[in-house]
Design a protein that fits this description.
The chain is α/β, with parallel strands linked by helices and 229 residues long. The chain has a single domain, classed as Rossmann fold (3-Layer(aba) Sandwich). 35% of the residues lie in helices and 24% in strands. The protein contains 8 helices and 9 strands. The strands form 2 sheets. A 6-stranded mixed sheet has the order 5-6-7-3-8-9. A 3-stranded antiparallel sheet has the order 2-1-4, with helices on one face. The mean pLDDT is 90.
């Protein structure tokens, strides 16, 4: 369960604190998916960074399965983000020199040695990566590099990479923002299909009304507050 309680965020400026979020509260259970919409500069990405434990809140709490990541030490926090949260950004952020398989496996490189040993030297992890690549429709491109793929295909790889550690929470920041309509439709359908299969908690920040309409729960950020649409 993702629980957000009375979450607020301010950024320091020469003229004093700049509030971007005020008293945001909501909860999502495994298998639930929500879209967050709002005008540019409304705080959507800031909220996503707080949910992903990339930035601390000014006040309030975020807990995932009862754990508050901001109470963890630096190493524990990094491990929490790596295992519990999957990220998909507007820019796929793939490494151009690496193959598709290598890109999907990147989050596993920081896995503890004991974990890799338990998975028979990483064989199970590699197979899981291949399975995910097949699920996003790129089994025949596993050895290709990002430069050999279309924009929609690269974003599909980014989705597979986000799911490789089997996270409980998947956060997407404008996942179809750089794609044409056909590619955006394919990526959106794929994202929701994988979400349903894995019963993750899915949060998608988007300007796209078409994408938001596909998600059963919709929020809008207005005047620094989150409202259910």
């Amino acid at each position: 369960m993702l629980r957000v309680a009375n979450l607020s965020k301010e950024y320091p400026t020469p003229r004093g604190p700049l509030p971007v979020l005020c008293d945001v509260s909501f909860a999502l259970a495994p298998g639930e998916a929500a879209a967050i919409m709002g005008p540019s500069g409304s705080g959507k990405s800031s909220l996503l960074y707080l949910l992903g434990a990339l930035e601390p809140p000014t006040s309030g709490t975020v807990t995932l399965d009862g754990r508050n990541p901001f109470q963890l030490g630096a190493d524990e926090l990094a491990a929490f983000r790596n295992t519990a949260i999957g990220f998909v950004f507007q820019d796929h952020c793939l490494l151009p020199q690496c193959s598709i398989l290598e890109n999907v496996l990147i989050p596993t490189l920081v896995a503890p040695a004991a974990e890799l040993s338990a998975e028979r030297g990483g064989n199970q992890t590699t197979q899981r990566a291949r399975d995910l690549i097949a699920q996003v429709g790129l089994a025949d491109r596993v050895d290709h590099r990002p430069g050999e793929l279309s924009g929609g295909e690269r974003q599909r790889v980014a989705i597979a990479r986000a799911l490789i550690r089997q996270p409980r929470l998947v956060l997407c920041d404008e996942p179809t923002g750089n794609l044409d309509r056909a590619a955006a439709e394919n990526v959106a359908s794929l994202l929701l299909d994988l979400h349903r299969r894995q019963q993750t908690i899915l949060v998608v920040v988007t300007h796209s009304a078409a994408l938001a309409a596909k998600l059963p729960i919709r929020f809008e950020l207005v005047d620094r507050q989150l409202r259910r649409s």
